[in-house]
Amino acid sequence: MNKRLTYLQQLIDSGKADAFAHYAFAMEHKKEGAIPAAGAAFEALRDKFPDYVPQYLMAGQMYLDDNQKGLAADWLKRGLVVAEKMGDGKAVGEIEAALALC
């Protein structure tokens, strides 16, 4: 585990991590190509911070890149609902564009 992952894991384990720290943890796993670990981290983030909009597009894109279109579509559809609820028009457009690839 790289130093950034170790630090973020410690922060999450301490209970003091905000949504961005959880997101950074998932994204670091994604960057490393550890799709199962990234997926688990995104799921933990969604469970704890369901209104954190960026996670949905990033998880969806990760699964699209990994040719897991069913998982991608699930994340993106959930994200579309959240982005609309939060009034995030930019995210709505990005998520809709990604959904078109599913």
Explain what the structure shows.
With 102 residues, the chain is an all-alpha fold. It contains 6 helices and no strands. It has one domain: Serine Threonine Protein Phosphatase 5, Tetratricopeptide repeat (Alpha Horseshoe), CATH 1.25.40.10. The longest helix has 18 residues, at 69-86. The chain is globular and about 35 Å long.
Summarize the structure.
The chain is mostly helical. The chain is built from six helices and no strands. The chain has a single domain (3-99), classed as Tetratricopeptide repeat domain (Serine Threonine Protein Phosphatase 5, Tetratricopeptide repeat), CATH 1.25.40.10.
What tags apply to this protein structure?
mainly alpha; Serine Threonine Protein Phosphatase 5, Tetratricopeptide repeat; 102 residues
Beta strand count = 0
Tally of separate helices: 6
CATH architecture: Alpha Horseshoe
Tally of separate domains: 1
Q: CATH H-level name... which superfamily?
A: Tetratricopeptide repeat domain
Residue windows where pLDDT falls under 50 for at least 5 positions: none
* Range of helix content: over 70%
Describe the sheet with the most strands: none
User: What is the fold named in CATH at topology level?
Assistant: Serine Threonine Protein Phosphatase 5, Tetratricopeptide repeat
List SSEs in N-to-C order: HHHHHH
Oligomer: single chain
Structural category? mainly alpha
Mean pLDDT score: 97
Supply Rg: 13 Å
How far apart the termini lie comes to 32 Å
Shape designation: globular
Q: What is the CATH domain class?
A: Mainly Alpha
